[in-house]
Amino acid sequence: MNKLYEVIIKEYGYDEPVFTKELKKRIDMSDEALRQNVKRLSDIGDLIKVKNGIYYLPRASNILKKPRVNIDKVIRRRYIKPIDKNVIGYISGTNFANQLGLTSQTASVPTIVTNEAGRLEYEVTFGKKVVKLKKPRIKINDQNYKLLQVLDLLNDYDRVSEIPLEKGSSLIKKYLQNSNITISELNQHLKKYPRKTLENVIEMELYNELA
Description:
Layout: H1 3-11, E1 18-19, H2 20-26, H3 31-43, E2 48-51, E3 54-56, H4 71-79, E4 89-92, H5 93-100, E5 111-114, E6 121-126, E7 129-134, H6 145-155, H7 157-160, H8 165-176, H9 183-190, H10 195-203, H11 206-210
Helix pairs in contact: 6-10
């Protein structure tokens, strides 16, 4: 069995997003050898290309049916939570407000704030799915992503929420439960946001929750 194929099965499994960028760190192989092996597996159908640098192993019984990897999973692994790594991004905008129950609306083009964004704001396409990427105000990690997600929400609250902040604040506070956010951290992060974000933080009495 091909050495690269064995590594992919062991580390990822079938129908899971496989990023060549990650593979370089998981296998002792030169860049050229990796490219040749990826091409060889792709040519014989053992490895299916989703997009440049992104592949997956189809289950043998499904090859003739031309299966497709879950695109949402590809996007999550690429921009939000890579396998075996820290959080690097989060859903923002209307779709996050919808997750919290603040609106019944959803955006056809979801917004993801991610450390992987190379520019301030732009769109990428995966098959037929379009995603808007935004650069974070502060580098995202496991500890701060929920706070940054909420601060982004509060900055755009009037635009993305269907209910007033007075009623929506309880849903936001519930989301932040067990996040271990300190007042000091909140103040540090707020320095990167417009004044209206601070005003909404004060209105929803978030400081009282952290005191």
